[in-house]
Specification:
By secondary structure, the chain is of the alpha/beta class. It contains five helices and five strands.
């Protein structure tokens, strides 16, 4: 069943947001919302109530961990998939401890990213 909900992409690099949007469209026909910084991300989360968030860990100003905490404070059931190009076990563990749904490296092949996002949606958003 295709995913037709809203996805919020949060990354300070426009080309990464474009790449993630292309991958996310492979889920079906989602509405893609983009934010390039933390304040914009929080405003768009509040306005749009997306079903899934893809969030970069490393961003200037408000970093991904701060944005994650703010989103989860607003909506404890939010589905947030953290994304980064770093390989740091401590960061992964901290994201998951704070309440991230999943964690994906940006250099993961697009088919594997799509599979992980499909699994997150299947596990968390489909009616049982």
């Amino acid at each position: 069943m295709p995913f037709t909900g809203k996805i919020l992409l949060i990354d300070d690099e426009p080309h990464i947001r474009k790449y993630l949007a292309l991958i996310a469209r492979g889920l079906g026909a989602p509405v893609i919302i983009e934010a390039g910084d933390g304040l914009d991300a929080l405003a768009k989360y509040h306005q749009e109530s997306p079903q899934l968030v893809l969030l970069d860990v490393n961003m200037p100003g408000m970093d991904g961990l701060e944005i994650l905490a703010a989103i989860l404070a607003q909506d404890p059931k939010a589905l947030v998939v953290m994304m980064t190009s770093l390989v740091n076990r401590q960061t992964v563990e901290e994201c998951l401890k704070l309440g991230a749904t999943s964690y994906i490296r940006k250099d993961t092949p697009k088919e594997a990213i799509l599979a992980e996002l499909s699994e997150v949606i299947r596990t968390n958003l489909t009616e049982s």
